[in-house]
Sequence to fold (408 residues):
Amino acid sequence: MHLRCNNRTCATTLDLHERAVACPKCGDLLEVVIDAPKFEPAALKRMWLERRMSNANADTSGVWRFRDLLPGPYDPASLVTLAEGNTPLVHGLKTGQSVGLERLFFKHLGWNPTGCFKDLGMTVGMTEAKFVGAKIVACASTGNTSASLAAYAARAALEAHVYLPSGKISLNKLAQALDFGATIVQVDGNFDAALDQLLQTTNRDIYFLNSVNPFRVEGQKTVMIEMLEQFNWQVPDYVITPGGNLGNTAAFGKVLEELKEFGFIDRVPRLVVVQAAGANPFAELWRSGASEITPSAHPETVATAIRIGNPRSWRKALHSVKFTDGFVMDVTDEEIGEAKALIGLDGIGCEPASATTLAGLRKLQLQGKLNRDATVVAILTGHALKDTDYILKAHSKQHDQHLAEVPS
Ligand code: F0G
Fold:
């Protein structure tokens, strides 16, 4: 296994454990090249399920039980894990009905240790950070990455620095980072400014753990492996996911390509990426067919997790969407709010960014583009309690409207 530049014409290779977040030749992102596993797909599928019955450190994690398709090998005792992953597929009942789908499922990544999918990438990224002898780990974040990094750094006994757009993230997420003992760096400006500031840091002791780190992407691949396992390896038709910095989209496409290449599946689900209309450079790129992304200078959306104007993984994500014959779309804040309320009424709950998925499906249904027999998986990226302020404000607005309608 080794690292390779994501730009296929450059394709510079580096040692797997080289501490780099970008190609030293062309500056593009790096990816881990995974070797073909030693065992046949049928044997591995069985082995992965059997590991769920084991109490060994590496097996209780819903990431590391798929270690045959992850970087390594690491000493099992050195894994930085909080038993992440193993999240359920929940059948969407009222939500399914609302879009005319019998087979709508939510893969709820909010039911991870810190309430978000970031833990899946963080267990791999933090294990690698420890392996290369890092002392300080850092990220810029719209909130969730910082909470996850702080928790896993605490487990690894590493110092955590998190760069946050001042006043622009949910207080629940800030509280998590504080609770786990991270040092908070407040940055004037948005997430993009915070990430720029961090990436310009010359301190060689800092190990970067944003999703530009290829090890983070590797952990997030397990969402697709576990989802396919939950369908007994019957491939769903669509996977619909929110798009922010686009690390997840990059990870999902990468692993679907690997699973097909290694013979685990013979077709792939279509990846549909949904952005918020106020922070939609990837959707704009898709619509225009341009060859380069144009960052949004002033991204704005109530879904603060995806208030991102300059998504770093866009090239990888575009490859994922094209490889799976998928597409990219956007939805308004109002549509996000309506979809979030519907998901709540199904007893599931999620944070606003996650509700872009159902909002996207509602829009597709209105456009007559949803086939009612399709099997659709919506990726819920964060827990409802991640942004309680949003919920309380939405309901107090409803309450005020209701009072205004009552005749005096
Ligand atoms: N949903 C949630 C809840 C998120 O926190 C994020 C990203 C996304 C979706 C978008 O995922 O970047 O892989 O396209 N949050 C990052 C953070 C940027 O800092 O917590 P993506």
